[in-house]
Amino acid sequence: MSSADVSVSFASPVVDDFIEKGVHRFEETLDVGTCGDLLADLKVDRAWGSDLFLEEEAFLADPQYRGVNPRAGRNLLERFADRLTFIEQAPQIVAGLTDVLGHGYRILDRKVVCGVPDSAMPGWLKTRIAGNPVNNLGPYVRPQYRDVTYFYGIDFHQDLIDFKGREADFLTLYVYLSRVGPDDAPLYLLEGSHHLGAAVFPHDLQRTDPENWRYRSGDHAIDCRQALLLGEAGSVYMWHACTLHGTQPGAADQERISLRYLFERAPGAEAGMDRINARLIGPLELYDTRSDLDAEGAARIKANSVNEA
Ligand SMILES: O=C(O)CCC(=O)C(=O)O
C-alpha cells in the first residue's frame, strides 16, 4: 500500500491525538511472529553484552563524541531493508502517517535503537556517565558497532533536538520488536508537552505528583500527564517532534531492541500537521536546540529529570 491509495482525513482520530496529546498509539499491533523473526536476525549480528564497548584506555586515548551514530553506509537496518514492509506498508501505519503528513510522506531516518541493560555496562563507563542527561553510548562503543544507537537512558527531550533550524513538521514512529515491560527501559512521554513548541534542552520540569509534571518554557507553564509506553511485541507509537520523552537506564538483564523511524512530509503537501502546529503556542524551530554540551560534544552538566519518574 502507498500513501496515494489512502484518502487523507485531516479530521482523523490520529490527528486529534496529535493535537491533544502529541502522541498516538496504534490500536492494531504488528504481527508478533514477524517482529520476533526480524529481532532474532538482528540479534545474530553481535553479542549485545559488554563486548560492545571500548576499553577505558582506548576511549581515553581519543574520545570521539560526534559522528558516532548510525549514518548512510553504517546502519544495521540497511541490510534488513527488504524485511520492513510489514511495518512500512501496514495499512494502519500508512493511513496514520498520511493523516498527519499528507500524501508523499518520506522516511527521513530509520535505525535500530538498543536500550542497554545494566548487566552489559562496564563499571568504568557507568561511573563516567552517572547523572548525565543524555546517555547515548555511541562514543564508548567499538567503531564497528556504531551502526545502532545505544542508550543507557536519556532525559526528557524533543526529537527536534537533532535538527537545528528545521521546522518541527516531522514525526517519530517507534516499533517495539519484543514485549516492553517496566524494567525494559520503556519510553516515558509527557502528554501535551508539544504545546509549548520548540524548546532548548535540558527542559524546565518539576514533578508535581507521581503522574504529572509542571513544564515551563518561555513565558508559559503547563501541566503534563506522564505516560509510560509499555507494550507487547509489535506495539507502535508515534509522536510529534516537540513531544518530550525519555528513558531510564534498563533494569532488566536483556537489551531492549526497537526500531526508530523519522517521517517527514513532502514539500508543499497538505497535511494534518498544519492543524496540529497551528495549535502550538511556542516557536516551531530553534537555531540552538541544546545547552548541555561543551565544544567537543561532551556533557557539561549533570542533571536528569526522567530518572525521578
Ligand atoms: O530508546 C530509547 O532508549 C530512547 C529513544 C529516544 O528517546 C529517541 O530515540 O529519541
Structural description of this entry:
This protein has one domain (3-308): Jelly Rolls (Sandwich). It is 18% helix and 25% strand. The protein is built from seven helices and twelve strands. The site of 2-oxoglutaric acid has 11 residues, from strand 2, strand 4, strand 11 and strand 12.
- β-strand percent reads 15-25%
| H-E string | HEHHHHEHEEEEEEEEEEH
Gap between N and C termini, in Å?
40 Å
**Spatial shape:** globular
Structural class: alpha+beta
**Overall pLDDT level:** 93
Q: What is the gist of this entry?
A:
With 309 residues, the chain is of the alpha+beta class.
Features of the shown structure:
7 helices, globular, alpha+beta, Jelly Rolls, twelve-stranded mixed β-sheet, 309 residues, binds 2-oxoglutaric acid
